[in-house]
## 1
Amino acid sequence: MASTTTNASVGTAEGLRIGNGSTDQRALDFSARLRRARLGLIVALVAVVMIFVSYSSAYVVRQGLPTLDPRTGTLVHDWLPLPLPSFLFLNTLVLLLSSLSMELARRQSSREAAAGWMTSGSGTSEERTDGMPWLGLTSILGLSFLAGQWLVWRELAARGFYVATVPSSSFFYLLTGVHGVHLLGGILALLAASAAALLRRPAASRAVLVDVTAWYWHFMTFLWVYILCLLEFAR
Amino acid sequence: MATREFAAHDAHVHAAPTSWIRKYVFSLDHKVIGIQYFFLALTAVFVGMFLSLLMRIHLIWPAAALPLLGEIKPETYLTLLTMHGTIMVFFVLTTAPQGGFGNYFLPIQIGAPDMAFPVLNMLSFWVTALAFVVMLSAFFVVGGAPLHGWTGYPPLSALPAAGPGEALGADLWVISIALFCLGALMSALNFITTTLDMRAKGMTLMRMPLTCWAWFITAILGLLAFGVLLSAGILLLLDRNAGTSFFVPLVTINGQLTGHRGGSPLLWQHLFWFFGHPEVYIAILPAMGLCSQLLSVFSRKPIFGYKAMVYAMLSIGFLGFMVWGHHMFMSGMSPYTAFAFSVMTMAIGVPSAIKTFNWLGTIWKGRIRFTSPMLFALGFVSLFISGGISGPFLAQPVLDIQLHDTYFVVGHFHLIMGVASIFGIFAATYYWFPKMFGRMMNEGMARWHFFITLIGTYAIFMPMHYLGMAAHLRRYSQLTELKYLHGLVPLQEFMTYAAFVTIAGQFLFLFNLFWSMKFGEKATDNPWEATTLEWTTATPPPHDNFGGHIPVVYNGPYEYSVPGAPRDFIMQTDPAILKAH
Amino acid sequence: MGLVLLVVIWLITFISAYFFLAKTWWLPVGASAAAAGIDHHFSTTYILMGIVFVAAQLALGFFAWKYRDRGATARQALYSHGHNGLEITWTVLTLVLFVGLNFMSSSIWASERFRPAVSDAVEVEVTGMQFAWYFRYPGPDGKFGATKPELEDPSSGGEGAIGLDTSDPASKDDVVTGTMYVPVNREIDVILRAEDVIHSFFVPAMRFKQDAVPGLAIHMHFTPIATGDYEIACSQLCGLGHYKMHGILRVVSQEEFDKWIAAREAEKQ
């Protein structure tokens, strides 16, 4: 463990300094950077998990907790279940599709990176921007999902459920909103990856970016399915 | 976040930046960021200390008119107490040991050229600095800063009508804490990735200095805890501004219905203390790691029970997440739950005791050099014992009936979380100043500073235990109303006088710090004859830490007084010891 | 320097310990059935922890002096990485001490909090608000009348402050006061409520403390064993008047209590 670490970090330093190192050297550089980025992503996801763990426990506690009715001095339950708009399931489908296209983009870009150091000496990716359509498609699907969520909010509001109407509607807006903000972060990362492609940044660094964005994206999809299950089955 | 890091990582080649802004303000260098954190905490600690001085003055001379500030009103006292607690806990005890010294020395001690994600590192500092500005701005808005205490229990903290300062001031307070959480999460991400991925060849986990272990475990605690506080803060903001009822049930303020219904004030307490208890360890673990290190260095002896120390810190970190309920014995939580929390809390005392025994074991049969960092490390052990010994009282719900929310609690956490951690920060400053600034600090001034601070803090905080036993409640701005408090006023007066002396002593430290930067004796590369990697490189370290090569590690961090060795210490990079074993 | 450190640490230890031993400042005199048990457990904890405190501090000071660097001629420091037997010994010892202490006190905690009040206990509803305590007795019907939050008006004091609904028949005989009267040697069933923010009902002499939380009605009990006036304090930060939110608990004989409550009932008619 320790010795590979060293080789890898030496590799990072060398690889950054010398553009035309050997193929082995740059493959090593790529895998070291990929590993570090993925490790960072896992750690970041732990923080995201903690946020949703606290909201889930707050949800369950708030749902089950009786509160004092001061008129009678007795404890009563005030939780009213929120009927979910069926439109949500269409949104879910869109997000699942976006995860699929994200995965295609990820595989494409790591192939390009591998091809990059096999064939070209300069390390840049010339016209090899085939991953672009998938990245673009993923962004569009992601934005459609967010637009869909916005429509769901509008529908709930039309039915008279606002943020503060009942506890279940507060939690609905909270969970969908916080998830939406996280997904927006993913879309920004996708835009950065697309920009990197357009600006002809080295294929390897773009591949690293696309790879971690993809895993982040899959996680957001998973998180959404979890939130939907919580809202649907623990009403 | 990690994903966006890499575009910038390409630019972060190991050549030093040349422009002043990139070098000193928006620097990506972990050493510069560490110093920035250090000065942020230094500013914060003097602000926090000043607030505490005003509180002590108000307690014994409630009607005194102060120059510029005038008379301190009872509600202002609560504002001072809230801001003192918040600033000290977040911007000093969390910021200095981890953000400051951890940032500077973790990469060097494990033999890395920088943190894993330098841009993220810079961002986490600036978000923290912004949080501090937002926190201070609460003083200057209409209604002033909040008065709900650093724990911010709703409904008091959730209803703008509940008191002065609970309007805009309280919003700024919550926003500042949320920003701080973001900064702390980014920082934790960096610390964990760096420790796991960037260790030099031969630097196995069990060869890491205990400081690195402490920073690593602290980062894990921060990662798990700050997300929860962030979530709770968002809920509180929604309750305050969007009319939701997460924490606020049906209540009236001064006869007026608030429109909230059904929320649970206890839910906030659970979320807050789920963060709040690990936060105690976030403050104290780096000091534990550092003092272990210093006791070994200056006793010229290997640390007693290195593995036991590591396992003790790991179990403190683990158990630290299962004891939050001991802050809530009197809150209306189920008494059965309270009993379970109390057993866990007593259990967490065990690894703390193990560490204390190991510290005593380390200096036992050593050859102690009484340098200023060593004095503060010994002071830390004394304070840790004194502050720790009151823990088993408070951990028992039966005794908590009497002691909860009294000065006994205030004395307990100030000694162990406040002063002991601050002693860790002082020790770190005296120890690493030569490496950071290239000069030694003045030893004479440091010794005076040590004895004034040690005796002074004991004189302030030990009497708090007596007050607490006599049922003196905390957060009381005037001692005139309850009759049984009248007899305790002389003790309060004594504490205020002690505070004056202690605070005066801190200016000696401040003077020494800046004076030594300019006029201190030039430091060599290894002035303390210590073994860890930061002492193998130049003073101050070059931009990439080791001047173009990456060190290879052969030894554990505490090889002192090895029989048959030519010197009484063997550097971690020295191959020599391979023959000795 | 080693000697100076020894003197300072030992002096701090001795002075701190002196005031604990001399009981210059101590727990207020207990006046409830639970006080003796709680105080006894406090003393047990305090003796055990006191021994650990003094021993550890003295050892620290002594080691600092004894193992100071005596210059180049002295022997080298001991080269030792620790001792597993010792580690295991002190781990087990502290575990037994700490967890044992906890279990010793569990029966007191159980009698205080696990069981509900006895059926013939005197019921008193305690309501906290910024910044006063009000006490309500159910009257001869044994039932508390309804209260309404929209009727709460702190400035009117008494019944108005807790929002008593006078149209409810059960509230006709409810007595609301600003001083808490209880009979001696009877178990008191306290029902804790708060109108606005969290307060905490603390009677030091009764060894009784419990938060009053809005949205909850918390039942808790204690048994006063000596007549007299005892101060009630608020122990949870509740706003700018927190320091002046206090009251009086008046423990009287059963006859006096009956007389007092009858007089209050007569006033209401």
Note: DSSP finds 17 helices and four strands in chain B.
## 2
Amino acid sequence: MSNQLRIREDPAKVELVLPNLPEYIALARYGVSFMANTANFNIDEIEDIRVAISEACTNAIQYGCTKCDHYYDYEKVKEPIIGEQVGGFGLFLIKSLMDNLEVNSIIGQGTTLKLQKILGSQNGTEKPTHETRN
Amino acid sequence: MVDISNQEHVSKIKGEVDIATAKQFEDAILEQLEKEYPIIVLDLTEMDYIDSTGIGILMNIKKNVLKDGQDIVLYRPKRSIQKLLQLTGVEQVFTIKK
């Protein structure tokens, strides 16, 4: 696998291909934060996107497969017991922070998540500027 | 400013806690707990990010590792992290000083 950043002809679309290694998840966070800021999401929305993408990448590393000979039944994933449960919050956070989540699992091909955040879908704080980001 | 009593020991967490750094995060907390301070204050003012892995570590320590009389206090998490602590129920379980 390789890590490469490809800029497509449509400047609104960026494809980031990362190694299946935990240390590269931070790069996914940085990249999606940059993209979300460029797209004019506000600070809160950018943070939501950053967390959701990071959680999705973590799940890919933890549960990703090579042969993919099983089907991931997303509908059977139980909601965590808030305040009681020790782990298993990844998918819950993705659903909580994004506006839409599509899960497509195909035997032999793996599982694909499509996360969607709608610009302006939540009231947030001011748009980050170069002086105030991070 | 952190108010520190004789019963508290402050440890500052800097940077990002995710699956790559989770073990380091957990080991750092466990190391402090082994010194048997009654209260460990985790200064989160410079913690930029924590994911569900890190949150799971906190919850596990709170529920399964702390000895009688021991506790962990979370000090001034950033606003973005406060949201995660709320969503995952961490704020129901931990004392958070803001």
Note: The mean pLDDT of chain B is 91.
